[in-house]
Every structure is written in structure tokens, then in C-alpha cells.
Amino acid sequence: MSEEAARAFAAYLSVRHRLPEAAFPDRPQRAGTLGDIADEFDAILLDAYGVLNVGERPIDGAAARIAALRAAGKRVMVVSNSAGYPKRQMMARYSRLGFDFAPDEVVTSREALLHHMAGEAPRRWGLVLNDAHGLSEFEHLDAAFLGDDPAGYDAAQGVLMVGSDGWTEARQRLLVEALAARPRPVIVGNPDIVAPRENGLSLEPGHFAHGLADATGISPVFLGKPFRGIFDLACARMTPAPRRVLMVGDTLHTDILGGAHMGFATALVTDHGSLVGLDVDDAIARSGIVPDFVIDRI
């Protein structure tokens, strides 16, 4: 896992120039669990992959921690870059994993994408997304799935990169070639480069979007952590001042950078997720992204 994590971390370092800026503390404080640091905060924002679950497996103690936070009067919300399937499917999945979140307690980059699209001019969109759920939540758009037919790439007037399940290197080449020949808008619904799953780190839409940007010079619009759109949706559902909000996640370049960009306190979880197998202090020093807290587990 450490070699895979090292490659992913290097990929995040290489795209730092496309990510937002933020102010950070000089050094993080250390704590064992989220319970050790939660008292000073009114709202706790939680990443999903690497914090609540690894793929289809819940992380031990996560559901109990959420219950304890609620019992202490904390506002708890999931802020996730999971964009590949509809909200109803996500809520059913959380229930299956043993979590009892209400819909308004879960904010996703898919929701941030849909919110953004309300202000976009009409055009024919090509979708980078598994077609298993059809056009659910995208019915209002003139959109078609991109597959193995080059004609679909030529017909698209813009591209929505939403989910990477089923996306292949061959399709990525078709996309790069089409946009290099005729640049068009690219909007990315999941900025993650990787996500922790049972058998390692999966490649996510951010990986393909940054590769596309490097190859074509196109500047994608990213919607999701670390960019503010997803956090704005979360903030609309709660009232605490920014420094009374704690963003908890496993990835420096999305969760920690995004939380700091918003003025939130941040906590990096190290027992699962994208940094497993790496020297966390070295990763913090190399990235220049410093959390307020480093905790072992939720």
C-alpha cells in the first residue's frame, strides 16, 4: 500500500498549482481520537472514504463516534467527493453500512455539480459516468454518456467528469484527442485523485481531469473538496462560525486544504485512507498543508 500511497501523494503534489490557497498553523497538535478534540467545536464535517468507510466496509467505531457527537449536541455532516451515483443510492448505502444519516446531513460533490449546472448555458454535455443508474439527477440536461464511439466525443459541446467507474485508458485517450483538437468546457464533479477501497486506492475523476489538463492546457472547473462550492452547500445548512467548525478527513490536498481554505479547523485521520504507509510528518512538510490536529482514528 505504501508504494501506491506514495504515487498518489506525488500526484497530488504535482497539481498543487490548480488547488486553492489557505493559511495553516505552524504545526499540528496530536490526539488519539476525534472524541479527544471535539469539545471545542459546534459542527463536525466528516469525509467519507478513509474516515467512515473503506470501500464497502465501515470503519470500526465510526458509527458509535457519530452517535456520541450527536449526544454531545454537535452538528454532524458528511462532506464527500463521492459523485458517481444518485443521492438516494448513497443514503441507502450509508444505511447498509450501519450509519443513520438524514439526507440533509450528507453533502456531496455531485450536489455541488448539480447546483453549479443550474447557472450553466445550455449545451450538449458528454458524461464521464457509469451508466448503471441512467441519467438520474441529470435528466434536465442535454447529456449523453461517453463510451467507446469517437462520434460521441465529437458531438459533445462540453464534458462533465462525474464518476470514474468503468472509465478506461482508451476512453481517456479519445477524450484527450477530442479536446486537444477542439477545446470545450470541462466540469469535474469529483476532484479526488484516489479513494481508499478494500483492495487499495482507486483512480478517481480528479486523476483523469488533471491528466486531461496537463495534456490539453484546458483548465477544468472543479466542484468538490478542496474547492469552496461543496462547503458553501454545507454552510447553508448550519450556523456555527467558521472556527467552531472542524473538517475531519484522511487527505491533505482535499479535506485539510479545503477546510483550511474555508477558515475551518482541520483534523487529519491517519489509520485509514490515502496516507496509510507513509510518514505523515514528512507528507505534511512536503505538501506545506498543515492540519490543526493529527488523530489516529475517528
UniProtKB/TrEMBL annotation:
Molecular function via GO: phosphatase activity
Gene Ontology CC: cytoplasm
SUPFAM superfamilies: HAD-like (SSF56784)
Keywords: Hydrolase
Domain of life: Bacteria
Entry-linked InterPro entries: HAD-like_sf, HAD-SF_hydro_IIA, HAD_sf
Protein's name according to its UniProt entry: HAD-IIA family hydrolase
